[in-house]
Design brief:
By secondary structure, the protein is of the alpha/beta class. The protein contains 20 helices and 13 strands.
């Protein structure tokens, strides 16, 4: 009998391979919820770990194939990856269990003809030397090989940020990212502690806490909306947006930033827009306990917003490649191609221009993405500001100082608050900062 965790992980990895779903959604599916908590944890580790190390796993398998360039069926390839990951990167799973279940998975999927080959390959991997990562690197290609990233991607990061920071990004991507919660109200922390959740201070925001131990989603505090799981970089983007009376969140789902805008502007009118009606409906549940702010919702493509000079604060947190979130979404590295950046750029320009049109004279707009790529960040700003003298970029230094002054930013674990900015723009880098990678800049329409 195949272990429930391996069976569920195999099904999820197969869907991801065939582009029939994303790991974050698939790991929250009914099929996963039906297995025990221990099996859910193992399933998550198997899925995320296999995706993180997939490039290295495929290389190891291909070296052992009689024909290294052979095209394997998806089910066979995934069974090999799953078995190899357990033997090479997990200490507590017996090799024989990983081999046996991988062979059974191949048979169960209708590919019994390949079971002998899978058995033989995995047994060779079982006696192979352990994986060792060098302490230092002299090239982007070496970093890519060591941390299972596409070489073209790491080369871009090394060119933009330097080899040391590119290495830090890749290393961060291979580890489970920190689980961070935002506390809503003064009693939330004590309530979580009473429910057995062990917390530590966030890296820079006073309302952020890192989860050291425990399942926050199982607590009453979480279910009642007094604590929200949200990356600290994501929280910071919304904090930097500041205050307004009439606020537009152009791409609002899943709603974490909109929740902070409402929290910081309790008397404001807040319009939350998103192209997905389903995601907007999910947002309503997230924001159900938000007090004060009057929140309305509109299902609309942000690039086609028809508002003219109506809002004094606009947030454009645009859809993007997500290269700053690969630690949470490891499959991004396998599906992303360099040509995608140009497509994303065109859509991001359209969304930002729509947001700029909606801005009142004197109003402010925050443009943000969770991408590390200049095509989706600096180049979008340049294209939208060029030839539009009524708009000007405003550095975020003043907003950052205000957050320090009102103690929204507490004592930082490393460095100073100014270290979060690059040329007046927010720039967090995974591994350099203990959070996802975010870019944010502020634009103002002249009065």
């Amino acid at each position: 009998m195949i272990a429930p965790a391996r069976f569920a992980a195999f099904g999820i990895l197969l869907k991801i391979e065939q582009k029939a779903g994303h790991c974050d959604e698939l790991l929250r599916s009914d099929a996963v919820d039906r297995i025990s908590p221990a099996d859910r944890n193992l399933c998550t580790n198997l899925v995320m770990g296999t995706l993180r190390w997939q490039i290295a796993l495929d290389l190891r398998v291909n070296e052992l194939l009689a024909r290294p360039d052979a095209r394997l069926d998806d089910e066979v390839r995934i069974a090999l990856r799953l078995g190899a990951f357990q033997m090479l990167y997990l200490d507590r799973i017996p090799n024989h269990a990983a081999v046996m279940d991988s062979v059974e998975l191949v048979k169960h999927s209708g590919h019994g003809f390949a079971s002998g080959m899978v058995n033989a390959l995995l047994r060779k991997i079982a006696v192979a030397p352990p994986v060792e990562v060098p302490e230092s690197f002299d090239s982007a290609s070496a970093v890519a090989a060591a941390y299972a990233h596409p070489a073209w991607m790491v080369e871009r990061w090394a060119l933009r940020y330097g080899l040391e920071k590119a290495t830090a990004i890749c290393k961060f991507d291979q580890e489970q990212p920190p689980a961070t919660v935002r506390l809503i109200g003064d009693a939330a922390e004590a309530a979580l502690l009473d429910e057995g959740i062990e917390l530590a201070p966030g890296a820079f925001l006073s309302r952020a806490r890192r989860v050291v131990h425990g399942d926050v989603t199982a607590t009453v505090t979480y279910r009642e909306g007094a604590a929200r799981i949200q990356d600290e970089g994501s929280q910071l983007v919304a904090e930097l947006a500041g205050q307004g009376d009439n606020i537009l969140d152009c791409c609002a789902a899943p709603g974490g930033k909109a929740a902070i805008l409402a929290e910081r502007n309790p008397k404001a009118n807040l319009l939350a827009c998103d192209v997905s009606r389903r995601r907007l409906d999910e947002m309503r549940g997230l924001l159900r306990n938000t007090r004060g702010a009057r929140i309305s919702y509109e299902a609309v493509d942000a690039a086609k917003l028809a508002y003219e000079k109506q809002f004094d604060l606009v947030l454009c947190d645009v859809p993007c490649s997500g290269t700053g979130t690969i630690a949470r979404n490891p499959e991004i590295r396998h599906h992303l191609e360099p040509a995608e950046f140009a497509r994303q750029h065109s859509r991001q320009v359209a969304i930002l221009l729509a947001g700029m049109r909606a801005l009142r004279p004197g109003g402010r707009l925050v443009y943000a993405s969770c991408s590390l790529e200049p095509e989706e960040n600096e180049s979008v700003l340049q294209d939208c500001l060029s030839g539009r003298p009524e708009f000007v970029e405003v550095g975020l230094e003043q907003r950052l100082r205000a957050l320090v002054a009102d103690e929204s930013i507490g004592s930082m674990q490393e460095g100073s608050a100014e270290g979060l900015l690059e040329k007046g723009r927010l720039r967090t880098l995974p591994g350099v900062h203990p959070c996802d990678g975010f870019f944010a800049a502020m634009i103002q329409r002249r009065s």
